[in-house]
Write a structure and sequence with these properties.
Mean pLDDT: 97
CATH superfamily of the largest domain: Aspartate/ornithine carbamoyltransferase
Number of strands: 9
Strand content: 5-15%
Shape: globular
Strand order of the largest sheet: 7-6-5-8-9
Structural class: alpha/beta
CATH topology of the largest domain: Rossmann fold
Low-confidence stretches: none
Bound molecules: phosphoric acid mono(formamide)ester
CATH architecture of the largest domain: 3-Layer(aba) Sandwich
Order of helices and strands: HEHEHEHEHEHEHEHEHEH
Length: 317
């Protein structure tokens, strides 16, 4: 297995099966620190730099919380408008990264341009973690989701997945790549104008992922062990910031997971994931049902980032 020390985490296309399990093993080992709300001194000599060119609640703060839990330091920006990348100068990724690499030991980057973290990795002498790039990928989110499945179901192989939402989303791409390493058939349900691209489907076929597409969650939910939902009413991820307009559309029933649907059609032991933020695709009354696992997912989001930071910074081999 390749070492994680000094490695960029840009895409799950790069991940081998045993590497997933190595990350999960470290996450499980570190989990008690977060569960007991303790901080250790494992990374006390290391600094995380957050470079967020797009809004985020979870991804940035989970990385920063993870760094604090491991005793490390945090610096960076949550809004490029406060930097020279977001004003008159429009400073390039290269020029920005050639500065940031001296301000810390690892950079987590979110950007509205697909491939921006890859561009950063070309110039940086320290690891870059992709915190979401345009419609590209969101590897740390899907690692979190897979870890949640492992913790909640005790296994990953042999489970049937249902993914609902906008199939152009970065999470869907990382999910597709990740599942190629497991025995997990998946059905994708998304609006016709938000379907998987032809190129991505070709790629998944080449990797032998068993996948199908359906039009309505009602047709397929009964087979699912894991239901992963993302919004279909959402911003344009290729914009640096997309404010909500006056008119907000409602999610069509085809892409909505309601309490009634779960209780009448879903397996009683299926689990429901949503990386959040949500619109109306999962109404709040689903939160207290036995299917919901998104709050566990939120906790695991910190644990997963602890594992990744520990690995890429060489604190764990
Ligand atoms: N799930 C997720 O990426 O959330 P944020 O946009 O808040 O980081």
């Amino acid at each position: 297995m390749r070492s994680f020390a000094g490695r960029d985490i840009l895409s799950l296309k790069d991940f081998e099966r045993e590497e997933f399990f190595r990350v999960f093993e470290i996450a499980e080992k570190l989990e008690p620190i977060a569960r007991n709300r303790r901080n250790t001194d494992t990374l006390k000599e290391k600094t995380l730099v957050s470079a967020f060119y797009q809004p985020s609640t979870r991804t940035r703060l989970a990385h920063e919380a993870a760094m604090h839990r491991l005793g490390g330091h945090v610096t960076g920006f949550a809004d490029p408008k406060m930097t020279r990348a977001g004003d008159f100068y429009q400073e390039s990724i290269k020029d920005t990264i050639k500065m940031l690499e001296y301000y810390g030991d690892v950079i987590v980057m979110r950007h509205f341009q697909q491939g921006a973290p890859h561009e950063a990795a070309k110039w940086a002498s320290i690891p870059i973690i992709n915190g979401g790039d345009g419609w590209g990928e969101h590897p740390t989110q899907i690692l979190t989701d897979l870890y949640t499945v492992l913790r909640e179901k005790g296994r990953i192989d042999g489970l049937t997945w249902l993914a609902v939402g906008d199939m152009r989303m970065r999470t869907m791409h990382s999910l597709g790549y990740a599942l190629t390493q497991f025995d997990c058939p998946i059905t994708f349900v998304g609006p016709p104008n938000m379907t998987l691209t032809k190129e991505f489907k070709e790629e998944l076929k080449q990797y032998n992922l068993r996948f199908s597409e359906a039009e309505h969650v009602e047709q397929v939910i009964s087979k699912a062990d894991v239901i992963l939902v993302e919004p279909v009413v959402q911003p344009d991820y290729t914009k640096s910031r997309d404010e909500r307009g006056a008119q907000v559309n409602l999610t069509p029933a085809n892409y909505k997971i309601t309490r009634e649907l779960l209780s009448t059609k879903a397996k009683s032991d299926a689990i429901l994931l949503h990386s959040l933020p949500r619109m109306d695709e999962i109404p709040p009354d689903v939160d207290i049902t036995r299917w919901s696992r998104y709050w566990q997912e939120a906790f695991n989001g910190v644990v997963m980032r602890m594992a990744l930071l520990s690995l890429v910074l060489g604190a764990t081999e």
